[in-house]
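Long-time lurker. I teach an intro course on protein structure, and each term I like to show students one example going from raw sequence to a predicted 3D structure in C-alpha cell notation. This year I'd like something fresh instead of my usual example. Would anyone be willing to generate the C-alpha cells for the chain below so I can use it in lecture? Attribution to the forum is fine with me.
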Amino acid sequence: MKFIYQNLLIILLLIGCNQSKDEGSSSVLKSLSGESKRNLWFVSNIEKGKADGTSWENAWSYSNFPQDIVKGGDTIFVDGGEKELIYSNVWLIENINGGYGEPVVIMNGKDSNHNGQVVFYRDTTNLDMDWKTGHNLYVGGHSRNIKFKNLKFIYAYRNIGIDKVKKIYFDSCTVLVNYEAGFSVGDTKPGTDSLIVENCNLSVNYPNVKGKWYQGDCWIQSIADNVTIRNNYFVITNGGDNTHSDVIQIYGKTSTNLQIYNNIFRNNKTYSYLGNNQIMYITSINGIVKIYNNVIISSSHYSQSPMLDISASDELDSLLIYNNSFYGKHQQRGIIVSGLHLSPNSITQIKNNAIYSTGNVAIAIDKASVGNIIINNNISFAPDNPNQTYQYDGIYKSFVEWQMLGFDIYGANKNPKYISIAFDKENLQSANGSPCINAGDSVPWIKYDKNGIKRPQGSAYDIGAYER
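-- Reply from a regular --
Happy to contribute to a lecture. Here you go:
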C-alpha cells in the first residue's frame, strides 16, 4: 500500500510540473494538502480562438470576459506583444473578487511574443469625461483583492479610477497624464478601503500655453480608508501660466488613515502665476496619518503654495510628519498645518524634517491646531526672508520667537546643506558638515531611511529622509 501511495504521489507531482512549465497552458496547480487551485488566464486586445482565456491562442478580449470566474490566487496575463501592445478603450474591472487570501494578479505576459509593454492609451483630443468610461482603467463594482503589476497607462480624462472597492494594489506601474488625474480614488461613493500604490512612476506634463487653463494632479482622493503610497516617483512638469496642479490632493468627504513614505515628489512646473500648485494638499482626513522619509522638491515659479498643506480634519488621532526632506524654490512654503480638530489623546508631531524654502515660511501653524502638537528637531532655512522662516496664527516669527512658543527647542534655523539644489539635479542627501547629521530624535518605528539604510548610523538619527 505504501508503494502504491508513493508512486501515486510521484505521478501527481509530475503532472503538476508539466502543467506549470508552460505559461501558455491553463494551469491547474492544486496541492496535495487540498489548497484551492490557482489558474492562469490570458487576455489580449481582441478575442482569439475559443476565447475561453486558457491560452494565448484562446485569449479573452480585455473588454469582454467572464470576470466572476477569476478567483483569489489566479493570475491574469495581459498580452504585451513582442515589444508593445496598445489597448485603446477603457478596461472596466467590476466583478473580479480575489476574496480574503491571495490577490488576483493582473500583469503583462512572461513568454516571448507576449512579454512586451502593455499600454493603455486614450486619445485626449475628444475627451470622454464620464466617470467610468473616461478612464483607461476603472476598478469598481464588486471587485476586491486585486494586484496590478508592470502596466502602463497614458492619458485619458482620468487615467485610473478606483471606486468603492477593497484591497487594491498597484506595483511597478507607469502612469502618464496630460489632463485631470493619474489616480482618481473614491470620488463618487464611500467604501474604498485598503489601497496600496508602490514602486510606480507617475508624471503629469502639460504644454506651456500662455493664458490657457489646465488642471491636473498625480493623485486625487475624495473618499478612501487605509491608503498607503510608498516607494513611488511622482512628478509634474511645465503647464499653462494659470495651471492648477497638485502632486497629491486629498479633499472633499472624509478619508481615514493614510501612510505616505519613501517617495520622491517633484513639482517642476515653470509657469504658475495664478494656479495653486502644492506637492501635497490633504484636507478632511481622520484617524492616523503618517508622512515620513519622503523627498519633496518644488521648482514651481511664482507660487506661494505650500509643499505640504494639511487642514480641516474632523478628528485626528495621530498626525506624524517625520524625517522628510524639503526643497522649495520661488516663494514655495514648507509645511502648513491649519484648522485641525484633534482628539483629546492625539499624538501629533512634526519632527526630524529638513526644510529649505527659498521664499519664506518653512513651518506655519494656526492657533486652533496647536493642541497636543510637538514640533521639534527640525532644520529650517528661508534664506531670502530669515525673519519670516516661521508663522504662527498668521504672524511671521523669527527663530527665537518660534522657540519662545515652545517649538523646535532642539531644532535649528540653518542651511541643511544638501549635496545639490541645482535644478533637475537636486540631491537632498546631507553633504559634509550638514547640521542634519546626528541631530534628530529617535523614532523607533522608522528603522530605515528612504534608501533602506538602517537608522541610526551615528550617535543619533539624522534629520531628513536620508541617513548618512
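Some talking points for your students: The longest helix spans residues 2-21. The two ends are 64 Å apart (CA to CA).
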